[in-house]
Amino acid sequence: MRTGATSASFPSGESHRRRLLFFVAAGFLLGAALALLADAPKESTPAPSPAARPVPVESLDGRTYRNPILFADWSDPDVVRVGDDYWLVASSFHEVPGLPILHSKDLVHWTLAGHAASRLPSPRYDVPRHGGGVWAPSIRWDGGFFHVWFGDPDLGIFTTRARDPRGPWEPLRLVKDARGWIDPCPYRDADGSLWLVHAWAKSRAGFNGILTVHRLSTDGLSVVDDGVKVFDGGTRHPTIEGPKLYRRGEWVYIFAPAGGVKSGWQTVLRSKSVLGPFEERIVLDQGGTPVNGPHQGALVDTPSGEWWFVHFQDRGPYGRITHLQPVTWQDGWPVIGEDPDGDGKGQPVLVHSAPDAVVERSPRLPRRPRSRTSSTALP
After folding, report:
1. Among the listed residues 240, 242, 246, 243, the one whose alpha carbon sits nearest the alpha carbon of residue 259
2. What does the domain layout of the chain look like in residue ranges?
3. Among candidate residues 103, 48, 96, the one with its CA nearest the CA of residue 70
4. Residues paired with 20 in a beta bridge
5. Strands 244-248 and 251-258: what pairing?
6. The domain over range 72-353 is classified in CATH as 3.40.1230.10
7. φ and ψ of 184, to 5 deg
8. Is 14 a catalytic residue?
9. Tens digits of residue pLDDT in 280-308
10. Would you say the pTM of this structure is higher than 0.70?
11. Is 110:101 a contact under the CB 8 Å cutoff?
12. From residue 51, how far is each of 107, 213, 263, 331, 338 by CA, in Å?
């Protein structure tokens, strides 16, 4: 050791005991102080509304359900009913297998049935590409097949089909080579014509907030026109995306989320024609509930004629979890969830009567619907 250098030394046994006693006493005093602070009178805060209070699990039965119905990351859900069976597809982005397919008999309890894509449509996905791949798919029933469509923001619009949603599914087919086209949904109108609505990814196209409708070929495997801009969200419905096309009676509807993933709302457009002009209305937002950004999902009916809306809620690290909302109709507009002030704009329910759905039937998929399929079929 060099002269003048100091050496590290350990404290003696007595010194060590004294220090240990000091730290123990200090910890005790700190704990006592925190306990006193916790018992101190606090400024009163209003009690949560009944809708915001959690309901004990034991109070729920087969006649009620509690949201979320799926506390897992099933992003951008779309649902179709065929007969008494409900089938859900969700985004999978760069993960494989992709396009998960879930099955339910009652819209509340779901099981994983399979995947519609065993791999992604390009060697570029042989390595992880976060933010790429499968965005916001749709699922429809037409001509004896289940059809799934999705947009890859870098490659274009793809589709696949299967007789049985459990598989096997046909290889992915490129319908439109395009950059920035996302969230496609096919639609067969009452006259048999086929259409496609989609949104735009600003990160690829340079803009968003626009919904475009195209005519499809007779076989539905190619886009045959340049498209019509049917809606510009502007500042009223910024970032509008995820469109789903339906017909109910004389009205054509586009259900589309707007306002952003974390705090947005559900917009509905309606027209007598698939090409517009469209009226607009916000039919669901957070309201006075803890459910932020309740939007983007599927309108579906039950065999008894009830209507429901399946959507996601962004919960940060937990992902986009799945909720189920009742739907009523007023003057040709859907009201989603509950509408406490009667203004036609709903808010999410946390607990509600369960759907009037068949739950005690064979899980075997009927090759032909035993009742009229939902409006999410391609009629």
Report:
1. 240
2. 72-353
3. 103
4. none
5. antiparallel
6. no
7. -75, 150
8. no
9. 999 999 999 999 999 999 999 999 999 99
10. yes
11. no
12. 21, 39, 19, 27, 10
Q: What is the C-alpha radius of gyration for the chain, rounded to an integer number of angstroms?
A: 27
Per-residue pLDDT band for 26 (boundaries 50, 70, 90) equals low
Amino acid (one-letter) located at 15: S
Indicate which residue of 183, 241, 285, 301 is catalytic.
241
Structure tokens at 77: 């859900």
Strands 145-152 and 135-142: antiparallel
189 is catalytic: no
Spot the catalytic one: 76, 78, 152, 285: 76
Structure tokens at 83: 């007969």
pLDDT at 372: 40
